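ok, trying the design again with the full structure, not the truncated one.
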């Protein structure tokens, strides 16, 4: 058996072992002191965990796929992690599109994104693709093709002309900065309160009607 056949057999065996496991999930855990950590294991306190990145747009797009692709995507969803300043990411994205692979793209551009990415992948190398539970770091077209083939993705695109890929989204939710009034906006002070009327008649001091 050639090395290429051995490699493909290993890829297929790996995917079979991972078929029954859930796809990678990442949780943002906020501690009692406000500290934030990222983990792929849901904590016992469900209120402290916030699952990251659920894409309604991706689910809607997948619903319009050919039946053959729907079955593969359900078992081995493809998630692509990229950075805006990454040339290999551009090449990998183009490969996935030409191959007709439905995928969800997560961008890693902020410090929060990077912390979450390292917690999820154990690496800071870009790009990364996850096929089901299998992660591949760095773009190597031959390796990516082998895993996509073993997962059951068609060798050539069968996407229809009406398919629209979901837009890339950040890996983590952007922080909301507190709103500050414009510098040239005058500061309004409350009007002074009128002094209380003196007590009438023989009312004791401090008594008011």
């Amino acid at each position: 058996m050639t090395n290429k056949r051995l490699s493909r057999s290993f890829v297929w065996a790996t995917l079979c072992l991972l078929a029954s496991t859930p796809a990678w999930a990442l949780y943002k855990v906020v501690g009692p002191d406000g500290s934030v950590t990222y983990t792929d294991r849901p904590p016992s306190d469900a209120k402290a965990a916030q699952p990251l990145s659920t894409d309604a747009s991706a689910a809607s797009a997948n619903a319009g796929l050919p039946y053959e692709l729907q079955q593969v995507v359900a078992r081995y969803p493809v998630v692509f992690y990229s950075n805006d300043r990454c040339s290999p990411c551009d090449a990998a994205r183009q490969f996935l599109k030409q191959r007709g692979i439905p995928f969800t793209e997560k961008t890693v551009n902020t410090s929060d994104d990077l912390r979450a990415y390292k917690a999820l992948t154990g690496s800071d190398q870009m790009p990364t693709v996850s096929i089901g539970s299998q992660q591949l770091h760095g773009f190597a077209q031959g390796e990516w093709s082998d895993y996509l083939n073993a997962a059951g993705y068609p060798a050539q695109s069968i996407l229809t002309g009406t398919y629209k890929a979901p837009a890339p989204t950040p890996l983590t939710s952007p922080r909301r900065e507190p709103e500050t009034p414009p510098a040239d906006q005058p500061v309004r002070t409350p009007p002074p309160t009128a002094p209380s009327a003196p007590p009438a008649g023989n009312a004791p001091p401090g008594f008011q009607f």
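Keeping the full-length input from now on. The CA atoms of residues 129 and 197 lie 76 Å apart.
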